[in-house]
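The protein record filed below.
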Amino acid sequence: MIYEIALLPILDEHVGKFRLEFAKVAPLLSSAKGHRGHVLTQGVETPQHFSLIMQWQSLEDHTPGFEMSEDHGKFMLGLQEFFSAEPTVHHFEGPVFPAENLAPKRSQTPAARKGGP
């Protein structure tokens, strides 16, 4: 499994618009050959910084596959106006996350997960 982590710096005044536009173009990503899932995360201390974490079946599915596709062009066209700088992309190889590792523990309340009672 290949994990692509794209660090996306967003203009402060466009954070809300970026989230809306990402939701519109995300189906282009989801329909790509080899796409196994993705999640968009937002910085806690720096909310204008996002990371897009994607799972690909192989590196070739992402690059050159998706990156050379018409859908990638449309995906980036929908988002590029919101970037404050060029996104940074890294690829990692690792195992598939078991679904049970992604769900919160049943014994933890939302407050306990945040460090509260």
Remarks:
- The chain is about 35% helix and 25% strand.
- The domain at 2-94 is CATH 3.30.70.100 (Alpha-Beta Plaits).
- Helices lie at 15-30, 59-65, 70-79, 99-102, 110-113.
- The chain has one domain: 2-94.
